[in-house]
Design a protein that fits this description.
The protein is mainly α. It contains 3 helices and no strands.
Length: 88
């Protein structure tokens, strides 16, 4: 199992917290009866924020795997492929 460096964890956590705030805003918009187009635009922004956070975590994990002993030879490519595909 690969542990991400503390700075990468902090960065990903911050991205997810921002997305959490955006999502709370979308819920509030729905409850207030805001325009559907505005709600969907904000929901799309939340989706992009989550995607970026996920890709950042996978990329940092990949980088960490490659920097460890064995490098690319020890990398489980099928597992990495599944991780990337789970975000798409």
């Amino acid at each position: 199992m690969v542990q991400l460096p503390a700075d990468q964890v902090r960065s990903a956590a911050n991205r997810l917290k921002r997305a959490q705030g955006q999502l709370a805003g979308v819920v509030r918009m729905l409850e207030e009866g805001r325009d559907c187009e505005e709600v969907i635009t904000q929901l799309a922004a939340v989706n992009r924020a989550l995607d970026r956070a996920g890709f950042a975590v996978v990329a940092a994990g990949l980088k960490e795997c490659l920097s460890q002993e064995g490098g690319a030879d020890s990398l489980d490519t099928r597992k990495m492929e599944r991780l990337f595909l789970s975000l798409s």
